[in-house]
Specification:
156 residues, six-stranded antiparallel β-barrel, Elongation Factor Tu (Ef-tu), domain 3, homodimer, mainly beta, two-stranded antiparallel sheet
Chain lengths: 156, 156
């Protein structure tokens, strides 16, 4: 079975230096502003990104704790499978958040709605394209009626 | 700078054995049925996934060609930055598609709307959660008014 090495293409700078300070999933709960720094060798790849209002950031949960395949989440105390959740402690440690793109200054994107730790390694950016990504018929699954709640001390 | 090794957690079985046969972005252009096989050691992580109608598949473009930071896409002949596009030939080779979850049979998910090559290595699954992912205000960027078109022979 193949495996593959991932190399960060940049860093996400956010106001959040501890896990307890991090909000959960951007546009829903955070209006925090962040700077997405793309390393200079990848800067050309940003051409035309400023035509989009929203972008996916893919990044590494580089400070995640132990992986559990079934666990409680930030939304309720019922255990859910890691693939039915966005929890950071997951195999391959890849995070995904949609943020609002405010502006671009060369290799820096100013974005709204960050929910990751400061200096999180960025591995990809994809445009949010409504005809692919805006799914009116999607159901809320087990998250229906659940709301984000403040994390108790010590929760990760 | 850290780097990280990605290990596939499964395989995506689709009807598409050549790049020319692949549609572009699922729910938009494909009603093809696929089987997402999750390796047995990760099966527990699927608990409650069947409560969602749509899921993100993250996978490796394991048969992608040379990376170009600015290139033409499947939507038009203007060159766009790779981060303003979903093109497969990109740094870190991670693909993302939203598919409709039809059913689950133990470690196999039956899904509709696959657009990747047969036996594509799966690296993560995340639920599509409307309150995070359904962004009514998102603009179409440079893709506005563009439609998918058949790939000319030899295009990748």
């Amino acid at each position: 079975m193949m495996d593959m090495k991932i190399n960060p293409i940049g860093l996400i700078h956010t106001p959040f230096t501890t896990k307890d300070a991090c909000p959960m999933q951007p546009l829903y709960s955070s209006s925090a502003i962040g700077q997405v720094e793309i390393f200079k060798e990848y800067e050309n790849g940003l051409k035309d990104i400023e035509t989009f209002s929203n972008i996916y950031l893919l990044y590494l949960f580089d400070r995640a704790s132990e992986i559990e395949m079934v666990r409680k989440t930030f939304l309720d105390d019922e255990p859910h499978g890691i693939y039915a959740s966005r929890h950071p402690c997951r195999p391959n440690s890849i995070g995904m958040s949609i943020v609002r793109l405010i502006s671009r200054e060369n290799n820096i994107l100013i974005v709204e709605g960050v929910d990751m730790l400061d200096k999180t390694p960025l591995i990809d950016i994809k445009p949010y394209i409504p005809k692919f990504d805006l799914i009116e018929s999607a159901t809320e699954g087990w998250t229906a009626g659940k709301n984000w709640r403040p994390k108790p001390a010590g929760r990760e």
